[in-house]
Amino acid sequence: MISAIKNSPNYKWWVFGTIAIGTFLSVVDHGSVLVALPSIERHFGSDLPTVQWIVVGYALAISVLILPMGRLADIIGRKSVYVGGMAVFVVAAFLAGASPNLASLIAAKIFQGVGSAMVQGSGMAMVVGAFPGTERGKALGTHLSVVGTGAVAGPAIGGLLVSAFDWRSVFFANVPVGMVTIALSMLILPLSKPEPVEGAAKQSFDWGGAILSGLALLGFLLVVGNGDRVGWTSPVSLAGTAGTILAGAAFVWCELRSPSPMLDMRLFKRKLVAMGVAAGWLSFLGTSASRFMMPFYLQRVLEYSPRDVGLLLIPPALCMVILGPVSGRLSDRFGWRGLTVGGLVFSATAWFFLAITLTEATPVYLIIIMLMVQSTGTALFNSPNNSSVLSAIDRAQYGVASALTQLVRNSANVASIALATTVVVATMGSRGVEPSLDAVSPAVADAFVAGLRWAFVMMGGLLLVGIAIAVMRGDRPKTTAAVESEPAGAGQASD
């Protein structure tokens, strides 16, 4: 049966489905854990800032390791890294559920982040490699739909598990599903030797580049994530910024001189890569903070319950689930520029509209409509933009390139929340209100909403810059379709 599947013309969809289970599991786990945090806080008698390190440590591990894991997948084979990552994920989930104290739980989640970095650094590369170049957008768009579905289902599944059992079930539930995913992956995913990069030296793992990139990313994420709390001009922030810049400069210097760099910096000489990465970073920088800020507005200004807020945010998420595959297919047929520019225009329009109209009593239906418009913009932009980046990169480098696109998202998410929070609390402080999101309530709604409007202006301005870059980048060369029309089987050889 397995042999028949691998020889089937639909084999690419079997590969996609196998990877999709792991992707869905990872995304659902994140949403479920967020719901379980209050129960964990009560169980261990801790406080929220400490308990949040369950999520923060997990996210830091993924962000720091995803690029090295993508490169490792290109060198030793993506299936090996993917299956190994799923094994680490499952073991860590069991250890998290069995944790006797909060410290061991945080450590288990950091360990699980290592597994997630391995899965994310190799999974999407295998999906894209299984499809011919002319269907790259379809693959990326359908993958985005899986991510969106997991984002919708995660909080709901987490809530059901915590209500029916307890917080430990959120972690233990990953074990049987993860074991099934490992079995399917070993049977179905292609096992083949890594494909050498034409004209490149023999590939070896760049330990120096991995360490320096990890230090630079860790410094960046810690400074940006804590700058508002400790002060952007405090000695700690300034020292962290200096260390981040030094590590980043050393990373670039080493990569330009390495015979087998972890990330070939010369790729950024290619217009599609450099401008695609820049537009992608600005896209997430200009949108991600909304998912953090809007629950504060809906709960603490309009006074909706957490359950109602979760329900209200489902329609925007569904826009991404439905339109992600559509935009991917359209980009395969018509090119990237129209969709990426149009998507950013949708998102910017939503933010500028809210910047003008948002008050302490804005009808909730109007807010949800604007969030749906913004989610539509993200769905239109994301798959075509990632497809444009991958089109300019050798298939043998899909692992590190796919990891790079996800690193762009993760780092921009952190920076977006930090920038928006700074704008909001600074505005609140200028109006004589305690400059803290913890102080948000109906009594200080006018100051919070004023800050939120300025945050929307800032995010809209960032998206305008992204629009300019997307326009200048251009569209798919006319020869691309002919060059990239290799059958799906060709992609399997590089996995």
Characterization of this structure:
The protein has three domains: 192 residues, MFS general substrate transporter like domains (Growth Hormone, Chain: A, Up-down Bundle), CATH 1.20.1250.20; 56 residues; 233 residues, MFS general substrate transporter like domains (Growth Hormone, Chain: A), CATH 1.20.1250.20. It starts with a helix and ends with a helix. The protein is globular. The chain is built from 21 helices and no strands. With 495 residues, the chain is mostly helical.
Count of beta strands: 0
Q: Taking Cα atoms only, what radius of gyration do you get, to the nearest Å?
A: 22 Å
Helical stretch tally: 21
Residues in helix, %: over 70%
Category by helix and strand content: mainly alpha
Through-space gap between termini: 21 Å
The name of the CATH superfamily of the largest domain reads MFS general substrate transporter like domains
Shape by Cα distribution: globular
